[in-house]
């Protein structure tokens, strides 16, 4: 199939400032598959422009767009209707003149006729009652909002299901800002929708407002449609959000509650204050309090106000059927010897008894990851129980459906909380490069499981789905667009499991400390920014030095696997053994060889990865053959070897 590049141009001739005329023209809107296939060359062009450096760090001319959202949502729990309104402000921090603005309308995934790559329920999607320009320098009055603030939807808006394009009456110059006012409504889909929905008892409300798409320094607008599998790419933004719904409904959300006295009774506020100082879960709203009507103030309608700064999205959860636990986690304060507390919340239905441990699992996750990588930066983290298949992350908020199995709940909570580092802080593109966040979260999840229970659930250090696809030769490259995998198995193996294998392979070669150091360097460089795969590989695998490119080619870009084996052992001369080694699969690592002798002593020889790349089947000559009792490859099982049954030899 031939994929064409679309070019954006403004409609009509309008008076513009000299600054706008001299600024750079808009970039072409590139097809996502093209970007994935040509990411190295597109990234290299950004290095040439000075927005990125060849070492994987941001360049001197790097920039990230910014936005501010002042939103209001009214929720009708009976009809599952959401009505929203707000001011959407976009600041052009790029050097480019923008003539068209892209908006994401994720709710339109559920409209009839919308393209999708998973089965989804049907709604009418998002209905825009109004969307107009409130501010744009030099825009004529006839193209701006009227005196009443919100006329009909701008005639310059083109909606293509989940992607909308607003052609501006005058270009948005570098350094200038655009204000939009909007009103909209939609019906929350049922609980078989991906990532959001309602089952009548609990509601997860995400992707509920028109959101500015990402315009970045590598490819410009990221306008790939939301098809259900590939997740999201978002700029950091500030949020001020008011959520109105009937009294008795608790609300959990991104950000910090600004008006607790307006929505919570004194007793609830007192227990919440106590939880801030407690390292054991405090029942802020118990089942008896909830049933007695004491979860919120008694009022037909209550408005909850939340604010958040520098986050990529805003989502919220509501129910009158849940209880609420809270406790404190202790995290190091960045760059100091001091510590800070993070308030951990857990909202769940009382029937989910395993969730009584959820707040503590959240605490363990925040504390462990803050030490393993870098400190959690926000004042709170919320876990909510409900409808999704597994779990889904939002800034400072995650919804998890794992129920009463403690290990499954710990694992899922750990994975979703791990996303608070990627992509919530390090803002990678989940739709095109799913492994850049799912892989790191999967690695963190296993790190937490080992720290908490002493072991993870992988078989000899290899996740099951990766092992399966590698053995049947069905593996697809990590550098595959998230929506373009052949199926769920290959998507999950490549996006979730493979980076776990890659990081373990790198740790086997260069040490676990090299992995941690690389990830910390990556986080320091790209928090609040948008890394691409070459940035990741240059920073995280820097310890490989001259071997880095080969490692990345085989383990990240390729679909090779690792299987080291002893092909044969033959007598050579009077008292030597010729050990013929082989690495199958196309991905190479060094191989430790341990020779044990009849006096109890052993010798350790490491055959470097370069030897296997050069010869494929190097021969190791071992003297004093009569004293050898065994030869074993990688006895500590540090390498992600697909077949450990061919790594031992002993004389008959």
Commentary on this structure:
This protein has 652 residues and is an alpha+beta fold. It folds into three domains: 362 residues, Immunoglobulin-like (Sandwich); 113 residues, no CATH class; 87 residues, Sandwich (Immunoglobulin-like). The strands form seven sheets. The chain has a seven-stranded mixed β-sheet. A six-stranded mixed β-sheet has the order 16-19-20-21-23-22, with helices on both faces. The protein is globular, with a radius of gyration of 27 Å. The protein is built from 15 helices and 30 strands. The N terminus is likely disordered. Helix 9 packs across helix 11. The longest helix has 23 residues.
Largest β sheet strand count, sense and barrel closure? 7 strands, mixed
Q: Structural class of the helices, strands and pairings?
A: alpha+beta
The total number of structural domains is 3
* The CATH fourth-level homologous superfamily of the largest domain: tricorn interacting facor f3 domain
What is the 3D form?
Answer: globular
What CATH first level of the largest domain would be assigned? Mainly Beta
Topology readout:
Layout: H1 18-22, H2 32-37, H3 39-49, E1 66-76, E2 81-91, E3 98-104, E4 127-135, E5 157-160, E6 163-172, E7 177-187, E8 197-198, E9 202-205, E10 211-212, E11 215-216, E12 220-221, E13 237-246, E14 250-253, E15 256-257, H4 260-263, H5 266-275, E16 282-285, H6 287-291, E17 301-311, E18 316-319, E19 323-332, E20 339-348, H7 358-372, E21 380-385, E22 391-394, E23 397-400, H8 406-418, H9 435-453, H10 464-471, H11 488-510, H12 512-526, H13 533-540, H14 548-557, E24 563-572, E25 576-584, E26 591-597, E27 602-607, H15 609-615, E28 619-623, E29 628-633, E30 648-649
Parallel strand pairs: 1-13, 20-21, 21-23
Antiparallel strand pairs: 1-2, 2-7, 3-6, 3-10, 4-7, 5-6, 8-9, 9-18, 11-12, 13-17, 14-18, 15-17, 16-19, 19-20, 22-23, 24-25, 25-28, 26-27, 26-29, 29-30
Helix pairs in contact: 7-8, 7-9, 8-9, 9-11, 10-11, 11-12, 12-13
């Amino acid at each position: 199939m031939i994929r064409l590049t679309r070019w954006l141009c403004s409609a009509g001739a309008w008076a513009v400032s000299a600054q706008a005329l001299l600024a750079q023209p808009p970039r072409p809107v590139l097809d996502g598959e093209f970007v994935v296939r040509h990411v190295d060359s597109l990234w290299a062009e950004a290095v040439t422009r000075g927005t990125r450096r060849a070492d994987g760090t941001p360049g001197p001319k790097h920039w990230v767009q910014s936005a501010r959202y002042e939103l209001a949502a009214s929720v009708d729990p009976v009809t599952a209707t959401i009505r929203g309104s707000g001011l959407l402000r976009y600041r052009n921090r790029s050097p480019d003149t923008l003539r068209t603005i892209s908006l994401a309308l994720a709710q339109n995934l559920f409209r009839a006729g919308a393209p999708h790559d998973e089965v989804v329920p049907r709604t009418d999607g998002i209905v825009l009652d109004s969307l107009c320009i409130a501010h744009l320098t030099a825009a004529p009055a006839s193209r701006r909002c009227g005196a009443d603030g919100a006329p009909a939807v701008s005639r310059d808006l083109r909606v293509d299901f989940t992607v909308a394009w607003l052609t501006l009456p005058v270009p948005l110059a570098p350094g200038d800002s655009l204000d939009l006012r909007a009103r909209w409504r939609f019906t929350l889909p049922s609980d078989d929708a991906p990532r959001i929905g309602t089952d009548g008892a609990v509601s997860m409300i995400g992707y509920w407002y028109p959101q500015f798409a990402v315009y970045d320094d590598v490819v410009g607008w990221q306008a790939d449609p939301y098809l259900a599998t590939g997740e999201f790419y978002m700029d950091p933004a500030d949020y001020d959000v008011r959520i109105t719904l009937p009294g008795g409904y608790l609300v959990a959300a991104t950000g910090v509650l600004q008006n607790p006295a307006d929505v919570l009774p004194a007793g609830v506020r007192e227990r919440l204050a106590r939880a801030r100082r407690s390292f054991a879960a405090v029942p802020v709203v118990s089942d008896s309090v909830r049933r007695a009507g004491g979860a919120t103030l008694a009022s037909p309608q209550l408005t909850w106000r939340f604010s958040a700064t520098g986050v990529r999205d805003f989502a919220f959860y509501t129910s009158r059927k849940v209880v609420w636990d809270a406790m404190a986690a202790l995290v190091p304060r960045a760059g100091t010897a001091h510590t800070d507390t993070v308030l951990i919340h857990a909202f769940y239905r009382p029937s989910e008894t395993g969730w009584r441990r959820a707040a503590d699992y959240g605490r363990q996750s925040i504390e462990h990851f803050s030490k393993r990588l870098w400190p959690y930066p926000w004042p709170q983290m919320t876990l909510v129980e409900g409808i999704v298949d597994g779990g889904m992350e939002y800034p400072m908020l995650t919804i998890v459906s794992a129920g009463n199995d403690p290990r499954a709940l710990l694992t899922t909570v750990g994975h979703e909380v791990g996303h608070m580092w990627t992509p919530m802080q390090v803002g990678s593109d989940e739709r095109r490069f799913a492994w850049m966040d799912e892989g790191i979260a999967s690695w963190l999840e296993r790190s937490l499981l080992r720290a908490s229970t002493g072991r993870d659930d992988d078989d000899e250090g290899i996740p099951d789905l990766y092992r399966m696809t590698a053995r049947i030769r069905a593996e697809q490259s990590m550098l595959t667009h998230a929506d373009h995998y052949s199926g769920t198995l290959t998507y999950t193996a490549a996006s979730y499991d493979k980076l776990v294998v890659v990081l373990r392979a790198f740790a086997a070669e260069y040490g676990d400390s090299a992995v941690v150091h690389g990830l910390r360097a990556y986080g320091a460089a790209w928090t609040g920014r948008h890394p691409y795969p070459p940035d990741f590989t240059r920073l995280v695998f820097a310890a490989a030095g001259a071997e880095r490119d080969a490692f990345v080619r085989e383990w990240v870009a390729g679909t090779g696997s690792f299987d080291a084996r002893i092909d044969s052992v033959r007598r050579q001369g009077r008292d030597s053994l010729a050990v013929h080694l082989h690495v199958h699969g196309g991905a190479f690592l060094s191989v430790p060889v341990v020779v044990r002798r009849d006096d109890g002593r052993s010798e350790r020889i490491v055959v470097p990865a370069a030897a296997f790349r050069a010869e494929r089947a190097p021969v190791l000559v071992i003297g004093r053959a009569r004293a050898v009792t065994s030869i074993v490859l990688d006895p500590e099982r540090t390498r992600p070897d697909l077949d450990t049954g061919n790594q031992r030899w002993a004389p008959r």
